[in-house]
Design a protein that fits this description.
Layout (H helix, E strand, L loop, with lengths): L2 H40 L1 H8 L3 H10 L4 H11 L5 H16 L9 H15 L2 H10 L8 H29 L1 H22 L29 H5 L2 H30 L5 H7 L1 H23 L4 H23 L7 H8 L7 H11 L2 H15 L1 H16 L3 H26 L2 H7 L18
Helix pairs in contact: 1-7, 1-8, 1-9, 1-11, 3-6, 3-18, 4-6, 4-17, 5-6, 5-9, 7-8, 7-17, 8-9, 8-12, 8-13, 8-16, 11-16, 11-17, 11-18, 11-19, 13-14, 13-15, 14-15, 14-16, 14-19, 16-20, 18-19
Length: 448
């Protein structure tokens, strides 16, 4: 082996190690993102009791998180194609911390919760798409489904870790302390990211020489109009299905803990364990789906099958389980609940990778951000609509049944649409890009 070959091999090894480090820090970023979302639902009982809230008022607080969520996601998504992700992600984490800490004040009531949840949502809206975009800068096509799965699995980890810790802090120090603790964690992550974070070799050059160029980057692809990307079947199918998945997640964060307490009769300690079960199931399904799609693509299977049809099976399964959940004996409730609130998100890394694969690098952050922003509108609607359905029903049990049925049919419709529309191979060819199934690339080294 020549000196030049040895140098290239050492650089490639260093890039792979750095990629794994950055991916781990990004997964932790999503862990905190999920914990910030979950804390309201996990402390719902004490909050409702202390502030004397109705179901609709609590639903309003939960929905307020998503008021600026989508606007922020799409705005930062477009910024992500012009500004490096390292400072953007650091600013987002600081916003999270700043939004959580005011709840420590005893005077913070309904208005303060609404205001801080709006602020938190504005900071968290771009979190998933920007974290995925950053992860994709470290991996070539055909290898993006698995890194995206690791990032998305961080959301499951956040719920698993948050549930027992939030309940413990809430019972020991009060529900306000749980919000404050998460604010402190956000500050710690910011310091870690500034020390270890950055973008990788598969990114369009954004200006400074210390940011590496994307080896696969084709300048001609910059001329692809953005409207052509967001009108492809792949982008539309991914966005519509994610709309239903995020509706389900928002319902789970805001209302499932209350449902388990008020309708199923579980204690706070039991709920803290049960809430983590869908998250564990989600982590397994997300990683397995990402790994399976990764393997299928490497074996030459079309992206329509590996990302479209495989992904569609998961929200379909979730929808069927959610329909059954309201129609089976109590003994079967928990297994169905676990699958219903976990399986749909297993599709997310596949749809993220599908969108990334049809986009030129200079359009990728905006395409991911806009898709997530539009899909996240469901998160704004779901908690409030659920509260209205419960208040309007003859009793709470009937209200929960109706809300869960609505969610189930949304998941099934999203699954069908994604199966019909997601065809990354065809849409990538339509933009003049190589398809994921045919592209073979070596990983370039990154300058640090």
């Amino acid at each position: 082996m020549t000196l030049e070959a040895e140098t290239r091999s050492a650089e490639a090894d260093g890039t792979r190690r750095r990629a794994r480090t950055v991916l781990a820090v990004l997964a932790l970023f999503i862990v905190i993102n999920a914990a910030d979302k979950a804390v309201l639902g996990l402390t719902a009982g004490p909050i409702k009791d202390e502030l004397h809230l109705t179901a609709t008022e609590f639903g309003t607080i939960a929905s307020s998180f998503y008021l600026l969520f989508s606007l922020s996601a799409v705005s930062v998504g477009f910024l992500g194609d012009r500004i490096r992700p390292r400072p953007l992600l650091a600013v987002l984490a600081l916003v999270w911390a700043a939004a959580q800490l005011p709840i420590l004040l005893p005077a913070a009531g309904f208005g303060a919760l609404v205001a801080t949840r709006v602020m938190l949502g504005a900071g968290e809206g771009p979190g998933y798409p920007l974290a995925n975009y950053t992860a994709f800068t470290w991996y070539p096509e055909k290898r993006r489904a698995l890194p995206s799965a690791v990032v998305v699995a961080g959301g499951a980890g956040g719920t698993v870790l948050a549930a027992p810790l939030v309940v413990l802090v809430s019972e020991t120090l009060g529900w306000r302390a749980a919000f404050g603790a998460l604010g402190a964690v956000g500050l710690l992550w910011t310091a870690l990211w500034l020390r270890l974070g950055g973008s990788g070799p598969y990114t369009a050059r954004l200006g400074p020489a210390d940011e590496p160029s994307e080896a696969e980057y084709d300048a001609a692809n910059d001329s692809v109009p953005f409207w052509r990307i967001v009108t492809t079947g792949t982008w539309l199918g991914a966005t519509l299905s994610t709309f239903a998945v995020l509706w389900t997640l928002a319902l789970g964060f805001a209302w499932v803990p209350l449902y388990l307490e008020e309708q199923a009769g579980f204690s706070d300690a039991e709920i803290s364990g049960i809430v983590g079960l869908p998250a564990l199931s989600m982590a397994v399904l997300v990683l397995c789906a990402g790994a399976l799609a990764h393997r299928l693509l490497r074996r030459g299977v079309s992206a329509r099958i590996a990302q479209g049809l495989l992904g569609a099976l998961l929200p379909l399964l979730a929808g069927v389980c959610l329909l059954l959940m309201t129609r089976v004996p109590a003994a079967a409730l928990l297994p169905l609940l676990v699958v219903a609130f976990s399986a749909g998100n297993g599709q997310t890394p596949l749809t993220n990778a599908a969108i990334a694969d049809i986009c030129p690098p200079a359009r990728r952050s905006a395409a991911l951000g806009l898709s997530y922003a539009l899909a996240a509108l469901s998160s704004l609607i779901a908690p409030y609509v659920t509260g209205r359905i419960i208040d309007a029903a003859p009793n709470e049990a009937t209200g929960y049944d109706r809300a869960f049925d609505l969610t189930a049919w949304l998941l099934i419709a999203g699954a069908v649409l994604s199966a019909l529309l997601i065809r990354p191979d065809r849409d990538a060819r339509g933009h003049g890009r190589k398809t994921p199934a045919s592209t073979t690339q070596a990983e370039p080294s990154a300058k640090e």
